[in-house]
Amino acid sequence: AFTSSEKEKIVTITWDNGETDKVMLLSKSDVEELLPSTDRRTCKPTTYASEISISVPEPNENVEWWLRTKEAYSSNAFMIKEYGEYDTRWENNSAGVRPALWISLSD
User: Could you point out which of 2, 20, 80, 107 has its C-alpha 20 to 30 Å from the C-alpha of 9?
Assistant: First the structure.
């Protein structure tokens, strides 16, 4: 949960279709810019994610997570594999998501 002043700093994103969001999945280009190395792309699941449905190979292991970018000429979406590499796959429920948001640092 966020305080009122923290909520005010969350930037609203307007997409090409006019829709707006405050929370999103990262795109492949976002990941290339913000998480350029594979070790920065790896993540471990929360306890909650492990309990509900995320496929976790072993306790304390990294998990796969979805990006919002679709593969060109395909229905596959990009994802980040356990070791931080890109992959594409038909959407399923075995991978997690890493919600992202932009924060305004100006007063």
Answer: 80
